[in-house]
Every structure is written in structure tokens, then in C-alpha cells.
Specification:
alpha+beta; Umud Fragment, subunit A; eight-stranded antiparallel beta sheet
């Protein structure tokens, strides 16, 4: 057995592993989307590429579909996929309800937060339920769908999100 060859191969594997780790932490990663809250833009089971550079540069725009750590889950590694509908200092009108009444309310998105909503409003647990999301929880912006092959392509940030008053 040639130990020099073994150490060289181990070194190559360690280098490759470090490169993949840095790439997936700071450049882009692959995420499997689960749930129907973003239908029809992102369907249950879609596999997407999430770029992370814009998040590191704090470039968050209305209409972007993002992946973030969940606020409403007991699992700290749970991710959500939602659309940014408002950025800091935007005014958000929304409906609230309890067991007896439903009323309209509005509030400003605080500095350092964004307001997220799913495109499929009736099936989405989002900022209407848990409030604005701290920007630090955003993992990245969805840019490309790789699966299913019938829908492969760029995921456009459409401005379905209405412009909010400042």
C-alpha cells in the first residue's frame, strides 16, 4: 500500500468537502420545497436553487421568493418558502379574526424585518399569523427550479405583491 497516494486522496476529499460546504453556506444551495402555501409559483416537492449572495448583502426586494428559518416551528432547522410583500417601514393592511369577529388592521414593518406571505393565502401560515420576520432569518432567494423537469427554469420575482404605502 502506498501511503503517499492514500494521504493525497484523503487530502483531495477533504478539500472537496470544504469547497462544497463553503459554496452551500455562502453562494447557493439546493432546497426541496414542502407544502402548498406557494402554489402555483412553487409547488409541493419542487427542488429549487437558493442563492445566498443577495442575503449576505442585505438586498431584499418586494416580490422575491425567499427561503428562511421558520418562526412558528419547534424545529430550529425548519425552513419556509414565502414571498416578500413588504420591506422595512412599509404599511401593511391585513385582516385579523378571533372566534367572534373579523376586523381590518394595519401596521408598519419594523426596521430589520420583512413581511412574508404565501401566494396560496388560504393554505399559508405566514406573517399574517406570526408577524414580520427578522431579516437575519432569511437564508436566500429562490432563483431557479431544477425539478420537476417539466417546469425547469428561472423562478421570476413577479410583483404580485402589491406596492405598499411608505
Amino acid at each position: 500500500m502506498n501511503w503517499r497516494r492514500v494521504f493525497k486522496r484523503v487530502g483531495v476529499l477533504i478539500s472537496a468537502g470544504c469547497t462544497v460546504r463553503v459554496f452551500s453556506s455562502y453562494i447557493a444551495s439546493i432546497v426541496v420545497c414542502d407544502g402548498v402555501s406557494m402554489n402555483p409559483a412553487i409547488m409541493d416537492g419542487d427542488i429549487v436553487i437558493v442563492e445566498k449572495i443577495s442575503t449576505l448583502l442585505y438586498k431584499h426586494e418586494r416580490g422575491s421568493i425567499i427561503v428562511a428559518n421558520s418562526l412558528h416551528s419547534n424545529d430550529p432547522h425548519s425552513l419556509i418558502c414565502k414571498r416578500i410583500v413588504a420591506t422595512p417601514h412599509d404599511l401593511i393592511p391585513f385582516e385579523r379574526e378571533n372566534r367572534k369577529t373579523r376586523w381590518k388592521d394595519r401596521k408598519y414593518v419594523p426596521k430589520g424585518h420583512v413581511w412574508l406571505e404565501g401566494d396560496n393565502k388560504s393554505e399559508s401560515i405566514d406573517s399574517r399569523k406570526y408577524g414580520s420576520l427578522p431579516i437575519g432569518l432569511i437564508q436566500g432567494r429562490v432563483v431557479f427550479r431544477v425539478w420537476p423537469l417539466s417546469r425547469i427554469g428561472c423562478v421570476a420575482s413577479n410583483m404580485k405583491a402589491k406596492h405598499r404605502e411608505r
